[in-house]
Amino acid sequence: MAINIKDPSAVQEMMKGLWRDNPVFVQVLGMCPMLAVTNSAINALAMGLATLFVLVGSSALVSAFKNLIPKQVRISLYIVIIATFVTVIDYTLLALFPAIHKELGAFIPLIVANCMILGRQEAFAAKHTVGFAVMDAIGMSAGFLIALFALGSVREILGNGSLFGIDLFGAGFEPWVIMILPPGGFITLGLILLFFNWVTERKTRFLEQVVAAEQAKG
Amino acid sequence: MDNLIWIFISAMLVNNFVLAYFLGLCPFLGVSGRLETSFRLGLATTFVLLITALCSWFLNAYVLIHAPYLRLISFIVVIASTVQFIEMAIKKLSPALFKALGIFLPLITTNCAILGLAIFATNRGYGFAEGMVFALGAGAGFTLAMVLMAGLREETEIIDMPVLVRGTAMNLIIAGILSMAFMGFAGLFSST
Questions:
Q1: What is the pTM of this model?
Q2: Residue range of the domain that includes B121
Q3: TM spans, by residue (chain A) (predicted)?
């Protein structure tokens, strides 16, 4: 299953997860871990990396066995594969980084229920070769990681006046406590989505203008 | 008995699954367009939560003490097959109810509130009665959040609003304000 990294389509598969098909901002998937663990940048980063491990591992396994998995029970099998990888990362984090494991708590096991992961197995890994499936998984989880990190750092900066635990503003800053509490998560994500919509709309309007100008000329 | 009442109130209001723990957001944002369907989905989810609490208690008590690392895998398999089984049973016993719930039943499997309930109940070491009350409270809280959200969304359809804001972005901001309101219930516990 060797794959040429310079192959434009493989790189495309990876890049689409970052912006055009970003799992959080565009497809609005995986909301539950997204909001629950993003009260600080470090938690967001840990969650993103754990998801990366699970998605890449299960995508590789699913696409390797895609011809052996019977159609009727495929969803259950995908879930069992995902649950296995989540158990691995759960115990690994517990052994290596007990502090982070304690912070994330029940939300590590809940990666199983992240619909983004199951969605990628069904929509992509089950139909492509291992190489492409891994590239797609890396791209998608990188997009997820970026989204988590954006939300986590905004919430930590405003809610705590710090980033990665380093104080940014000094004693004069009054932290917006609401930002690190649950409502802050909902509202911040809502505003980020709003920004994303705005950028996308500006882009389409710009493209339309370009097309119109071309037509007027030609 | 006091303890059970507190577990119920805590799961329903103070630590509402949707608005404080962000569990079950997919149906909360996806299916909350109509009041009627939201209420029905809430009831169906409550039912599945109760069955899951029963199954996870059984698994914890008799199977998982021998093999704790199988916890997650066995929970998810049990939930997926329970939902499948309930779906078949309802189809056989009450076609009318099956028609009413229809598409929502399979959706419940991917609702992280169900798995979340099993994991929380295990982590907190709940016994049988506590687990069942916890499930009932969580289901009531989920239904309440769904109905409130659906009511608000029906109202927003009448308002004149920029197209850019409509959709998920606005729903999330509404959910944020609801969540803020629910934080007020935390005062119930401050004295104890």
A1: 0.82
A2: 36-148
A3: 41-65, 77-98, 104-120, 132-155, 175-199
